[in-house]
Each structure stands twice: as structure tokens, then as C-alpha cells.
Specification:
By secondary structure, the protein is mostly beta strands. Helix content is 11%, strand content 40%. It folds into 2 domains: 108 residues, Immunoglobulin-like; 139 residues, Sandwich (Immunoglobulin-like).
């Protein structure tokens, strides 16, 4: 028994007394400690940690702290104490970038700071660099809103390769291209308002319908909800607007078509544009 205790004590000293455990003999690996950051948690308020990437909730040791992802957001974690003065405990969070983020959670009645941002870049002097904040990543989106907005702008400015268009009462709508980027299928639009009256879209809808309508039968229509839309609120008179809308990728059978419907507020000008399955299959990877 004494011999076992001496061996365990010696191993503990080796493990915690040195920043790196050197390989002994023919051992084919080392064990390198991963540092952790202390975060205060309180009973009456919520502590939030924003990560630079989407996360999976990892492992917590104590049942005295509630840990959960914010509903509808992929990179924000909420922490709340379930009782006062709990012992310091640890939390491990796994990032979708393959990194492990480690925290020591400590109770505090009135924390000076409740919201934290994980920063993983360094300056030349070895200190952490603050990049100015990580946007929250909404669930179901492949990236944050800011990045998708910039991507939509760049796609809308592309020269385009499609010429599907329709003109209704001095309003011309054209689908200039279909692109695959960031896990979404982007439809790029160019809308030219040739009248002096501003055009204010009440809605822009995309749906899948049968190409051939059978008499006395209701038209089967499947609405396609956009994952990201950069559509303008108003298209000024005698101007042209270019924008892109992102959808989850899809394909069509030859018997189906995509119908774009765009209507003006107060029952004004309404536009319908049809896209065949072969147009969808022409989508280009960017």
C-alpha cells in the first residue's frame, strides 16, 4: 500500500510540477497542459461567452452551474449559477474549428463584467489581440450575418450568365446568375425601374410548381424559404437595383419549375418569372 502511494505521489509531482511531460523511454507521445481562463458566474444574472466559431456544448463538472447554448445562435454560451458560493469548477467547450476551450467557473455576487468574447489571436509582444468582436452566428446559416451580407453584395455585382427576364409596366426583372457559395445557392437579380415612381416590394417569393397545369386541379406549390436575403426595401424611380438571395441548394425534375413572384405594396405592379430545371442545374460554384 505504501509503495503504491509513493508511486502515485511521484506521478502527481511529475504531472503538475512541469509544464510538459517528457516522453519516458519508448513512450511515443507527450502530454502538454492546456491553459484555462477564469469566468465569473452569478445567481441572479446570465453570463454570456461569444466564441469565434460555432460550438458544441462540452463537459461541465458541477451540477451547480447551468450551461446552455443560446437558442437560435450557434456560437454563444449562457452560464448561470444554481446556488451561491459554489466551489470553483471547470467547463470544456468544443469548437467546430477543432479547438478545445477550457474555463474555470467561479461564483461572484456582482461581477463587473457579464459578457465575454473568446479571442484566439496574439500580437507580436505575446499579448492577446482584440479583433473588435465576433458577430453571433444564427442557427441554420453557414456564416454570420455580416459575412453573408458581404458575400451577397459580391455575388450581385458579378457579370452574370443567365438572361431569364420579364417586363411588366416599366419594371424589368432579370435573374443574372445562380451560384453555389458558403453552402447556399444564390440567385442574383437585377431589377430596373424605368418609371419615375418608386417601386416598394411587398414580398419576393420563390416556389416550386408543376410546369403543366391540369384543368380543375389545384396547382401544387412548394414555397422555398430563403436562408439569407439582401433584397432592397425600395427601388427608386429610373434606377437599377442588384441583389442576391441565398437558399439551401435544390434541384428540380423536368416536370417542375421555379416561380419568382414579386409584388408591389398596395396591390401595385406584380411580376412573375419562371425558371426551368435546366437553369437551376447551370448553377456555378464560386
Amino acid at each position: 500500500m505504501k509503495f503504491s502511494m509513493i508511486v502515485f505521489a511521484g506521478f502527481s509531482a511529475l504531472l503538475f510540477g512541469s509544464p510538459t511531460i517528457k516522453a519516458q523511454g519508448n513512450t511515443p507521445f507527450d502530454v502538454v497542459p492546456i491553459g484555462s481562463r477564469r469566468v465569473p458566474v452569478t445567481l441572479d444574472k446570465m453570463t454570456n461567452i461569444i466564441f469565434p466559431v460555432a460550438i458544441r456544448v462540452g463537459i461541465k463538472v458541477s451540477r451547480e452551474v447551468a450551461v446552455q447554448k443560446v437558442k437560435g445562435v450557434d456560437n454563444v454560451l449562457e452560464l448561470k449559477a444554481l446556488r451561491r458560493d459554489f466551489r470553483v469548477t471547470n467547463l470544456s467547450v468544443f469548437g467546430m474549428d477543432g479547438k478545445l476551450y477550457c474555463f474555470d467557473l467561479q461564483y461572484c455576487d456582482s461581477p463587473a463584467v457579464l459578457n465575454f468574447r473568446v479571442v484566439d489571436s496574439f500580437t507580436n509582444d505575446g499579448s492577446f489581440a482584440d479583433p473588435g468582436g465576433h458577430p453571433v452566428m444564427l442557427t441554420g446559416l453557414p456564416a454570420d450575418i455580416t459575412s453573408l451580407g458581404e458575400l451577397a453584395d459580391s455575388i450581385a455585382r458579378l457579370r452574370g450568365f443567365l438572361h431569364n427576364s420579364v417586363k411588366v409596366e416599366k419594371l424589368r426583372v432579370r435573374v443574372t446568375g445562380i451560384y453555389l457559395k458558403q453552402g447556399l445557392m444564390w440567385l442574383a437579380f437585377r431589377v430596373k425601374n424605368n418609371s419615375s415612381v418608386d417601386y416598394r416590394p411587398e414580398y419576393i417569393r420563390l416556389s416550386v410548381q408543376d410546369r403543366r397545369k391540369v384543368k380543375r386541379m389545384a396547382v401544387q406549390e412548394i414555397a422555398l424559404d430563403p436562408s439569407f436575403s439582401d433584397a432592397p426595401k425600395v427601388i427608386l424611380g429610373n434606377t437599377t437595383a442588384e441583389f442576391a438571395i441565398g437558399y439551401l441548394p435544390f434541384t428540380l425534375s423536368k416536370s417542375k419549375q421555379v416561380v419568382l413572384s414579386m409584388a408591389e405594396e398596395n396591390g401595385g405592379r406584380e411580376v412573375m418569372l419562371m425558371l426551368k430545371s435546366k437553369s437551376i442545374l447551370r448553377a456555378r460554384a464560386e
